[in-house]
Amino acid sequence: MVALQPLNLKNWKVLPLAPCAWPSTSPVLSRCSCGNGTVKMQKSSSSKNRRKSSYGTSRRSILKKSFNQEQVTFTSPLSDDPNVAIIGGGIAGIICAIFLDKRGVRSTLFDTGIHGLGGRMGTRVIDPHPLIFDHAAQFFTVNDSRFAELFNAWMDKGLVLEWKGTIGELHSGGNFVPFLPSPPKYIATNGMRFLADSLLSETRMVNVVRPCWISKLEPFNGMWHLSENGKPCGKFDAIVIAHNGKCANRLLMTSGLPLIAKQMKRLELSSIWALLAAFEDPLPFPGSTEVPFEGAFVRGIDSVSWMANNTKKLLTSQNGSPHCWTFLSTAAYGKQNKVPQENIPTATAAKVNDGMLEGIEAALGLSKGSLPKPFYTRLQLWGAALPTNTPGIPCIFDPFGRAGICGDWLLGSNIEAAVLSGMALANHIADYFQSPEIDRAEFAVGLNQEFQPLEGHDIGQFPGLESEIKMNEDQAYELAK
Predict the structure, then answer these.
(1) Where is the stretch described as Disordered (predicted)?
(2) What pLDDT, on the 0 to 100 scale, is given for residue 312?
(3) Which sign, positive or negative, has the C-alpha torsion 235, 238, 241, 242?
(4) DSSP H helical segments within 199-344, as ranges?
(5) CA distances (Å), origin 94, targets 9, 285, 418
C-alpha cells in the first residue's frame, strides 16, 4: 500500500484546456463568453442529415466523443451556500459526503441501489431462514493511520468487528494452509451493507436520493444541472463521480469534461462472478466432517478464487443454521464468460453455476459428484468488479469544470483505498470553495497522471497481508516438490 502524503498541489502539472475539436457536422459546445459560466449547445445546419448514432455503442466511439469535447469553464462565483452532487453511493462516495459535511459543505448523494447504499459493499439477506451473504467485499485490513482513526470510531459504535475465524489458502486437492492471526481482518457487524447504510446517520448536510440513475450532466448559468432520463434532479456548484465502468463513461461522454473523461477511460476493470449458495449441512473436507476454515483464497482452480462461510462469519451465535457460502470466480474465468450483467443468458448462468460448483469440489479435494447440493443458489456478475490499473493518487479534480473523481481504483482495490480517496476529494473541494482568491489552476489534480498496472488478488488488495501470502506460497511450493 502506498503511504499517502498531504496533497502538494504545486507539484502537479496542469494540462491546458482542450480546444474544441468537434467536426463541423456534429453538435458543438461554444466557448463561454457571457461571463457567468454558461455553456450553450449549437448545431450546424448540416447536422439534420446526419444519422443519429447509438448511445455509447463502442469503447472507440466513446473515446472519440470524450476527447473531442469542449472544456466547460465556470467563471461565475460560487453560490453563497454551495452544494455538491455526488454520483455513486459506494464507500468512496459516502465518505466524500461525510467529510464535506464535516467541512460545512452541503451535498446530495445519488445512488442506484434499491436495497441500500454501499455499491460493492453489498449484503444480500434472504428471509425467512435467514440466509445472509456478503456478495462482493469480503473483509478489510487497516494500514493507514487516517483510516485507522475513522475505523476506531466505527469500532466504538459497534459497526465493525474483527473476523477471528480461520482464514488461509486452499490449494487444489484440499491442501489448506491457514494464515497467522496478524494482521487483523475486519468485517461489518451485520454485513457490509449494514456499515454503508449506517455511516450517514449523524450527518446534518447530506441528502440521499435513491434509487436514482443520473443519466445527464449539463452546465448552465454557472451550475451543473443533473437529470434522470429527462427528469430534473437539481442544480449543483460541483459534481463528484464516485462510480466507474461503462455507466460513468457514458455519463461523461458529452459532459464537457474531456480531461476527467480521459482519465476515467484509462481505467481497466475485471469481471468476477459471485455464486451465493446455501447448504443444509457443513461442507465436507477430506478426513473431516467439516472444512477447517471460514474463508480461503483458492489456488489452482480456474473457476474459483475465494470462498467464505457467511453464516459463521456473521451469525456466530446461531448454531444449526443453514451454511451460507459466497464463492467468487477468478478474473480470468469472469473474462472467459463475460456477458451483459443486466441480461445474463440462461445457458451462461447454468454453465457458470456448474463450473464454479465443480471447481469448489476440486478445491476441497472431494470426489466428483460428492459435493452436497445447495438448496439455494443465486448467481451475480460483477461486470466492473475491480481495477487492474491505477494512477496511484487519492483523487482527481478539474477546477475549471468544478468536477472530481474518487474511488478505490485511484489508489488500489480495497475499502481502505476507497475511504482515503473519498476523504481526500472532500477536503480538496472544501479547500477550493474556501479559497476564492487563489488561481484555480492550483487546484488541478491528477488530470494527466499516468496509470500503472495494479497487483493483488482477484478479489482485491489487503494491506499487511502480503507477507503471509508470500510465506504460504513458499510453503506450498516446498510441499509440491
Answers:
(1) 39-59
(2) 94
(3) negative
(4) 246-252, 258-265, 310-314, 331-336
(5) 24, 41, 10
- Distance CA(417)–CA(421), nearest Å, equals 6
- How far is 39 from 75, CA to CA, in rounded Å? 11
Q: What backbone phi and psi angles, to 5 degrees, belong to 28?
A: -125, 155
String of b and e for 336-362 (b: at least 16 CB within 10 Å)?
Answer: ebeeeeeebeeeebeebbebbbbbbbb
Under a CB-based contact definition with an 8 Å cutoff, are residues 422 and 95 in contact? yes
Q: Which of 425, 460, 465 is nearest to 446 (CA)?
A: 425
Q: Which residue has the cell 466524500?
A: 96
Task: Give how far Cα 360 sits from Cα of 86, 353, 394, Å.
Answer: 40, 11, 37
For 181-227, write each residue's pLDDT tens digit.
889 999 999 999 999 999 999 999 999 999 999 999 999 999 999 99
Q: Does the CA dihedral 474-187-97-249 come out positive or negative? A: positive
Q: Which residues pair with 21 in a beta bridge?
A: none
DSSP labels for 305-338?
Answer: SEEEEHHHHH-TT-TT--EEEEEE--HHHHHHT-
Q: Mind listing the pLDDT tens digit for each residue in 356-412?
A: 999 999 999 999 999 999 999 999 999 999 999 999 999 999 999 999 999 999 999
C-alpha cell at 153: 470510531
